[in-house]
Amino acid sequence: MDGTATPWFDEELAGCRLADKRLDRRLRQLVERMGGSIGASIPLACQDWANTKAAYRFFSNDRVGEADILAGHFQSTRGRFVAASGPILVLQDTTEFTYQRESTDAIGMTYRINSGKDKAVRFRMHTVCGLLMHSSLAVTLDGLPLGLSAIKFWTRSKFKGTAALKKKINPTRVPIEQNESFRWLENIRQSVALLGDPGRCVHIGDRESDIYELFCMAHDLGTHFLVRTCVDRLAGDGNHTIVAEMTDAPVKGFHEIEVRDDKGNRDIATVEIRYRRIRVLPPIGKQKRYPALDLTIIYAQEPNEPQNRPRIDWKLITDLPVQSAADAIDKLHWYAMRWKIEVFHKILKSGCRAEEARLRTAERLVRLIAVFCILAWRVFWMTMINRTTPGAKPQLAITAVEMKLLDRLIADKPAQFGELKPLSSYLTKIARLGGYLARAKDPPPGNIVMWRGLSRLTDITLGAAIAAELMGN
């Protein structure tokens, strides 16, 4: 690879086909400029009025949808999925983007909160203006993010409290297609269709994803799931529940987990491992529509309540077989990987500063966040590739010009590397541009120093190119 190699964003967006070629070019320019100024406003990233105005026109163009913007990234995710081996965890979660607007009409609302009392000592309800995003992130068992496999944006025009709804109707009797929870099923279907190998996928979700329809869809599609359960479902012949059947399940092993107490001090918790294959029944109101399923229940619980922190009490449900305590512990590790999608959302909000955008409508904000999703994945990928595959060739992530600039800016220690330096050495240098100290006992660089370093490297590369042109003249 030389200095004229295809930039990463051209490869990542190769599968995009917008309404015309001018929109394709503008999308690539936006990803390049905003990727070089992560966290900056649109005017700062674009630098001049002509490019800023063009960016605003792009985000307000009704012919461009978030699916169009992310189409190339989805195809790249599929390519990385095919190249990877073994099971792939597809992490699902919902996050909210809130904005300060005088009116919610243009953007919509996410929820309402109690904002205190007025002069008449009456409680005031404050509407939170914003968007909701439900995403699926494919990661390897080592935690390397391969990319997004599905995404859904929505907003609420009218908020209805769950408690008020339960007074009028039993939620379990409402068809899943009429609930917001249907997004969990939609993302599974979209991910399976994209990745093309459902047997390798394990869809992971928190307690909100404990939906019987999700279990049935996974069974029908030939894919797998692992979710944290919160519903005590009917089991066996229908005369008892899962909790009742798990009460007499024997302890099959123990597992030590590192935790932190209320003051942030590290502690080691020992949990008891129980598991059992159980015949699980659908809700009573849906037993004519859905079949009973044989599923595995895993309990990981501390025997006693600690004094300085909450007791660990994990209850997981999966269609995967568990034959030993080691298998159960593996599933616990897989579920713990769910935190990776929280990190991805943090990069969107803290790194890309998606909630500081000033675009006026929900449609425009969704298009901007779709661009941010590509940038956030890139930062996350470069952070994790440094940890999972430190010995990879540097050409996997950076160009020859960037390597020369990094070697010039940050010299290696004598005899630290041979002639072929690994990728980790260059990623550490990028992190050092972002404030990473690289001391002997420091942990690997994180996302914050990585996105700072990438922004500085972009500026340095541009400056070097301009200097070469000036010297050439």
UniProtKB/TrEMBL annotation:
Domain Transposase Tn5-like N-terminal: 7-64
InterPro entries, A to Z: RNaseH-like_sf, TN5-like_N_sf, Tn5_transposase, Tn5p-like, Transposase_Tn5-like_C, Transposase_Tn5-like_N
Signal peptide: none
Matching Pfam families: Tnp_DNA_bind (PF14706)
Superkingdom, taxonomy of origin: Bacteria
UniProt protein name: Transposase Tn5-like N-terminal domain-containing protein
Organism from which the protein derives: Shinella fusca
